[in-house]
Amino acid sequence: MIPGSDSDHPSFLKSFLFAVQGFRFAVRSERNIKVMLCGGVLAVVAGLVLQLDLLSWGIIFLCCGVVISAELVNTAIETVVDLVSPEFHPLAGRAKDIAAAAVWVLSLMVALVGLAVFANALLARL
């Protein structure tokens, strides 16, 4: 497909399948995606144990989705940087480090939100 052109634009279903294909590739090939998914599963298990309310579930799912999405964007950025700069270049390394830092900062903030949600659920049970 040529950017800006409507010809040969994939259907909605094909676009969806491309997204699923990208997600499957990332899960198979990227360790950090697996770590984030495991963290999400642990958050869901903790939520089931603590019997979270509907709003808390929404916060947990939103946080999990945002972190996994950020990790996918980071992976895409690293892939493009590797494509355009196969040899080491300080600017390429900086771009990859900054993208990784964005995921790290987001993960720290989500961890704080998770602590608040789960602490609230624990205190409500006392």
Automatic annotation (TrEMBL):
CDD domains: UDPK_IM_like. The chain crosses the membrane at residues 33-52, 58-77, 98-123. It is a multi-pass membrane protein. Its EC number is 2.7.1.-. Keywords: ATP-binding, Cell membrane, Kinase, Lipid biosynthesis, Lipid metabolism, Membrane, Nucleotide-binding, Phospholipid biosynthesis, Phospholipid metabolism, Transferase, Transmembrane, Transmembrane helix. Its main location: membrane. InterPro entries: DAGK (IPR000829), DAGK_sf (IPR036945), UDPK (IPR033717). GO terms for molecular function: kinase activity. It comes from the Bacteria. Gene3D superfamilies: 1.10.287.3610. Pfam families: DAGK_prokar. It is an enzyme of class 2 (transferase). It is found in: Cell membrane. Belongs to the bacterial diacylglycerol kinase family. This is Diacylglycerol kinase family protein. It comes from Paratractidigestivibacter faecalis.
